[in-house]
Amino acid sequence: MATEAFEDIVGDFEFLEDWEARYAHVIDLGRAMAPLEDAFKVQVTKVDGCASQVWLLPEIADGAFHFRGDSDAMIVRGLIAVLHALYDGVPVAQVCQIDAAAEMARLGLNDHLSAQRSNGLRAMVERIRKHATEAV
Questions:
Q1: What is the rounded CA–CA span in Å between residue 54 and residue 71?
Q2: Region class of 50: left (phi > 0), else alpha (psi between -120 and 50), else beta
């Protein structure tokens, strides 16, 4: 059920030989993402449960879920970019049907993130699902 953009990331990961290269790729994905304007870095968009500062701004257009996000940590920015690839453009009603943990496991992220980063990733997914549920 993953988007084409997420499948592209899965394909990239298959060609990267070790976790260091994959980690660097996640960081590069975050660097390529447009920053969230400071005006949107407010309490209402902040994701609690993350060790770093994380902001997610949901946008619903034509029945599809979109979001922009940012973080003060490069690896977390990269994780936001991966989640963006997983969820962006998905019909709002289908967002909660995506098994984010299973999709992230395809990338091996479950085995290589610290407990704090894993908790933060779960908090971001929960926030995405909450916004989608509220929009339906």
A1: 4
A2: beta
C-alpha torsion angle, residues 127, 70, 27, 81 (rounded to 10): 50
Distance CA 119, CA 85 (A): 19
Name the DSSP class of 107: T
Domains of the chain: 4-135 (3.90.1010.10)
DSSP 41-98: -SGGGBPTT-SS-EEEEEEEETTEEEEEEEESSHHHHHHHHHHHHHHTTEEGGGGGGS
Note whether 101 and 110 are within 8 A (CB): yes
Is 50 catalytic? The answer is yes
| pTM for this predicted structure | 0.95
Could you tell me how far CA 94 lies from the centroid of its own chain? 16
Q: Which of 2, 9, 27, 50 is catalytic?
A: 50
Give per-residue pLDDT as tens, 39-83: 999 999 999 988 899 999 999 999 999 999 999 999 999 999 999
